Every structure is written in C-alpha cells, then in structure tokens.
Amino acid sequence: MSEVIDAFTWIARILFAVRVSVINVVSSGLLFWFAVQADDLLADLSFENGWQLLFWPGVFAATFFLWAFPVHYGARKTLNKDSWIIQSATRNGLPAHCRDAIIGEVRARYGGAIEWIPRVLGVMPFLVLAIGIWGAYGAIGRADVLPEIGRAQTQLLVLLVLDAVFAAAFVYFVIRRKDWFASWTSAALHRLALAGTGAIFVCAYVFPIHTALVLPRALLVPPLFGSLVLFTSWLQRLGNKTGFPFLVALGVVAGALTACNTNFDALRTSPQADKGTPSTDERLTVADAVARWKAANACSGDSCPHPIVVAIDGGASRAAFTAATFVGELLDNVPAAERGEVPSPGRRLFAISGVSGGAFGAAVIQSALRDGQAAPSSGVAPCRSAQRTWFGYDEWTRQDKPTMSWRQCLQALTSGDYLSPTIVGLAFRDFAAPPWQDIGLPPLADRAALLELSWQRHYSATLSSQPISFLSGESCDGKTPEGLCRPAAHPAAFIEPGKTWMPMLFLNGTSVTTGRRIISADLKAENDAASVDGGALYPQAYDLREAMSSPCPDVLPSLAKGEDVAYPIKRLIDAANGKNVAYPVKRPEDAANKKPPENEQTLLLGSCGGRPAPVDGPDVRLSTAALISARFPVISPAGIFSTKARDNKGVGGSMDPQPYGDQVVDGGYFENSGITTALEVVKALRAQHLKPILVSISNNPQLPDATAADIAACAGESGTPPGGEELRLKLARHCSGVPPRTAPTPLLFTGFNAFVGRLVALAALPLKTLVGTGDGHADEAMGQAQAAFADGGLFWLKVDVAPSFGPLPGPAFGDDERCQKMTPNTRFAMSKVSMSWWLSAAVQADLDIQRCSIDNRSQLRDLVEAMKARDGVSH
Length: 875
What we know:
This protein is mainly alpha-helical. It folds into 4 domains: about 1-245, no CATH class; about 260-510 and about 665-700 and about 780-875, no CATH class; about 540-665, no CATH class; about 705-740, no CATH class. Strands 1, 2, 3, 4, 5, 6, 7, 8 and 9 form a 9-stranded mixed beta sheet that branches. Strand 3 and strand 4 form a beta hairpin. Helix 4 (about 50-80) crosses helix 9 (about 185-205), helix 7 runs antiparallel to helix 8 (about 145-180) and helix 31 packs across helix 32.
C-alpha cells in the first residue's frame, strides 16, 4: 500500500513540477468543454472554397508547433533538470552523494512517468480541439435543415479527422525527435521555439489589430494558449533551482505596473475633446423630439401614428444580430406609401433602448439609417460591400445586381469578427500595461478600446466599396467623422425638422459605485412635461453626459466645517424643480427669516454663481457610447471617467481638486432587457398625449411551452414527445411532480457539471448570481410592461429553441423563399446558441430563421399594421 501511495505522491509531484503545462491544458479543456462560444469558432465557414484548404490545416499546424510543442517541450525541459526533485532549501543542506542517490532512485523508479507525462501533455491540445469540435457539432445537431448548418456539420467531421491525423503525427514526432534532430543541441531547439512564440507575443502586444487580422478566430487559439508557455516554464525552472517564486513575482509586478496606468481603462473621448475643444449639449428635450418626430411623420391634430419604442436585450453579437434581423424586417416591410416625403423608413421609430450587445445593435441601426438617408437614393440601405463573416455573403454576391435589403444590410453590419481583437487585448496586453505615455510612448488601448475599434473598422468596411487598408488600425482617422465614429448624443445636428428623423438612442450601462443605470441618451435628462418625479426623464439613473460634466462643489465647504448639509441638499433639489420649499430653523436668529441665511442661500443656490452647472461633458464617439453598455466582466474591463469640481464662478478651477467620476460596467448587471428605460420613455410620450408602442427584442433562446401531449409523452403514455430533448427542462418539471408556479422552479445541474460547479463555486456563484439578477430584473421589467400595455401595444420578438413554422392564420406575412422552406413538419432545434462577439454562419442562420416562426411572423405582421394606423394620439 505504501508503494501505491508513494507512486501517487511522486506522480503528483511530477505534475506540480510541470504545472505551467498542466494548467495550460486543463484551463483550455474546461473552456472548450463549457463555453459554446469557444466551440463555435470551429464551425466557422468564412474560409470555404479555396481558402479552406489553407486555413484549417494552418490551424492544426499552428496547434502542432505553437501550442502542443511548447507544452511538451516546456514540461520535458523541466523534468530533465534535477532541481524539481528536491526542494532548494532541502537540497542545499544535503551532501552531494545523498542528492545524487535520491535523484538516481527517483529517476530509476519513475522514469516512465517522467518520459511520458510531457508526451501526454503535448497531445492534450489536440484533445481540447476534439472536445470543441464535438461540442460545436452537438450544439447544431438538429438544425441541419438550414444549408449553413449542414455545411458546418460536414466541416466539423472533416476537422475531427484532421485533428486525429495531426495528433498522431505529433506523437510520432516527439518519439522520433532525437533521431531527426541529433545534430541540433537542446539549447538551440529551445531558443528557436522561444524566439518564434516570443515574436508572436510581441507582435500581438504592439500591433493587436493587425495580429487579429492575420490570426483570426480559430487560428488565434494556438498562439493564445502557447505563446507564453516556454517563457513561463523557464521561470518555473528558475524558481525550482533558486527557490524564489518568479511566476508569482512576475504576476505581482505586471499587475502593479498596470494599476499605475491611471488612463488605461478610461472612456475614450472624441479627438476634439482630447484637444480641449469645448463641447456643446445639442441634445433635444422630449417636447422638441416629439415635435420633430411629428413633423417627419406628417402628424397634425389627431392624425398621428404610434411612436415606436424598441427595447433590445443584451447578448453581445447575438443581441445585435437578432435586433438587426427583426428591425431590418420591419424596415423592409414599411410600405413605400407610408414613408411619405421623408426618405427614412425608420421614421416611425421614436427611440431605441439597448443593453450590452443590444446597445451596439441600436447604435448600428441609428447610424445605418442616417447613412441611408444621406445616400444618393435616400432611404435605401447604405451597405456597399460585405465580409465573409456574414452568413448571407455567398447568396448576396451571386445576385446580378448585388443590392441589399435593410435586413441584409443590418445583418452584414453586425456580423463582424469583434472577438479576435478583444481576445488579443485580453491575453497579450491587458495583464501588463504600464503607463507608457508617461515616458513619451503612445498609450496602450485596452481590450475594450480594441473591441470598439473592431466595430468601427467593420462598419466602415461594409459601407465602403473599397477595402480598408490593412495598415490602418483605426477607421476614425481624423477626417469628417462617419459611421460609428460620429459623436454620440448630437441629434440636433442631423435631424432637420420636417425633413429627417432618426430614432433616439438610450444606451444603458451600470454604475459600479451605486449599481444604478448610467445612460448615454440623445434626449436631455430633464422632462419638460408635467411629471410627478419633478421633471426627470429617468429620476433614478445617471445621464452620462451630465455625469462627465464638471460639478459644482455645493456642499463641500459646509462639509469641511462640519455643518449639517442634508436638508440644504434636499431644498436645493426641490428648488431646482420649482417647488415651494419650507426652511427648518437651525438657529434662533433665523426663526423670523422667510429666506435662508446668506451663507445657506449660497449653499442652496450652488456655488456656480447661482446658476446650474452647464452640461460640458466631453464628446464621445457613438461606438464609445455603445461600449459603456457592453462591458461584461473579463471580456471587457470597467470603463472609468472622471471630472473635477468647479469654483464659485462656474469655471473649472482649483477650489476642490478632488476628482469626481465613476466606473461603468455592462448594463445587464442592472437589467438585461432595456425595458426599464424604455418604459420611462413611454411615460414621457404619454405625457405628450401620444400612444406609443413598445417592442421588446429578446435573443436568449426560449424553451417551448409543454403541451398536454408532450406531458403525456413524458409520463410514458404516448412515446417520444414532439421536439424531444428541447423540451426536457420544461417537461421535467411536470414529470417530477413539481407544481406549476408563477415563476417556475429551476432545475439543478447533475453529474460532472454539478461537480465542476461545486469546485469553482467560490468564484463562479457570485458572478452567476449577478448575471441571473440582470435577467431577473428584465423579467420583472417585462411584467411591468405587460401591466402598462394591458390594453395592447406591446410586441415581443424572440428567439426560440424549437420554433414552430407554417402558414399564418389570416393575412400572409414574411413568406420569402427561405421562410417557405420551413414547414409545420420541419424539425429544427438549436439549444446552444453562442453569445459572443463573433457568430458562426450556423448561429447567424439560426437567428435569421427565427423571423419565419409563426409567433414572430404574427407579431411582425401585426406590428406593421399598427405602424400604418394613425390613431396614436390620446386625450
């Protein structure tokens, strides 16, 4: 028994000695096991035709040389040294003959493990890819009725064979390596491998956008996991030899240097703001916006259409692409006669409230409508080209005159590869980002800025008939700002009364400090209509432009003197809202005063000369405004903004040098549907005597309802239920005897997934709770919307796991060629729909076909009819 224990102990010791390689393959394996986003990289059809012959063999060759070999070589090099066998403190106190005896015995008894563990670790990257291939195949396994998914399945099977071939070749290589490279010294091989992987790391650090263009998506995986293995393995060996924790020290130093970079995660401002050019608040009030919307819709008297407010769920590119699909379908189906003289098919849309990826989708929709309005044929979709990352690329290029519908254009604009630059920033740059700008070098862009740059580049490339230069890392090149490079929240600059209209944007982030919403809005935060909330459009949220403006230090002088400032603050708010305030008596000599004493009056009115502080926050680009809402943890860091207080003349000064500001994270932390803000816009429109329509666009796959036949089948009464495995979660509640409730009791994980969940519970459960809270708040917001629209006017467009297809009762709608292929007998289900900043053609096809479901076509048909009606005025 003791020999078995000794064997396990030394095996564990060997694995700990090569922990860099072990951690590498275990972490990558868990990523591909649990993250459908990683699996989806292997279903990429962007490199079909001739390119496919080079791309995928290149992926496996890169896995061979840039990932598997460093993992193997780093482990083997470590185990070839003797320093790991005896700890340095013990080793230094032993006589030489004792050290040699112990080392010789260990190598004699466990030589097989010492030789084969590096080989097994070297093969593991190919096993990791096999896990990803199998996961991708399983996610799309019952959706092959769509041609894109059928092609993806065929490709995945081919990749599985290629993976096995390269894995076998690698095993043969490491076994015969000594014979092939007998004339090479071990040091020479090590230096060559280190130079190659090191060069990739340096290029990724210095040129992240270009690296992402050269190594996109799946081709980025091998250098992502392999580039630092040899270097960190060397540090590990150095630590074994000296007893100093070099890896820990490297992490501490890198983290400290990054923490010293106070501007690294700051929100990017416009070039004009960076030069100190003052900004002006060109946003509209609610009344101004309503007046311009009415003029664009030829609205007079009681003959007004319903203003449409759209709320878009969060969900990275999946949210943006889903919104592009449904909003594009709406724009394509607005009859030409309803567009009138205003060349804008989006003129019925009053506002769009977006969260996370939905905010990006909202920004793209508004910008495309504006570019379409400026096109030679006003009102036509502005896209002039497309990238192979869009699933409809081949079909579009086969057309005689390749023009795009609005749906196609918006899909093309939201189908870019935004993931690769973000991952390059996360893996190669953000963990070690010292303040280079302090020594005269260009500042580093964090992974959030790289995500934003990828949005801008893809948008500009899709609207241009000329490809963007490879050497250009940024499309906002200082010329007249276009596309997503335009300044956000300047509606007055591009909406001409009676001539043009664009939907107002509300892009929702979350404050780290308070947990409230931070909103980048095209409308001013004050509501000039009568309101019980004192005139605030969204009284419990922060307006980004106001929050970035210089505040007045109204209460700081009194705080410094230890005075009670609580009630002056309240009176300041009341007075600003025009309320008649009562002044509680603080001192006997003030009892007869009808006004507060002089020093308190100064405090009450504020120290900006008795006037409200102007809204002078710096301009940000439209892409930056969308990004404040799309900062999900790990993938994007929290964005930081700060400002300084003003002196008593209303001019930025040194009276209070204390910086003000906040950190902003993903809007889904607060509420993941955008409905909360949308309802506040609805309330303001109703105060303007309009009857708005609310459209919620959800991208989180919805499980179908269980029918009586399904429940009977689950109970074993009538065989396999229609829809099969897709109904398992809902049917399990019925079959287990759990009674139906308003909020259904969720299911717990079982088996291996439950084990891993318990293993990482300390770190994972708080994050899971935060994410679930955002979805829970979204459900509650939907409940409030249902109550607010009890008489109608609420539409829900959604993604179903197993949508139902067939003819609509009543008038037909959306019966294009693609939809006609989906019949009532079509078996279609895709339960794992990747949520990432890149979507494979299979996922895009799944999201696109959702517009053909009976539920969504019915909603779209009724919504188009409601858009035609002119009974949108209330009295």
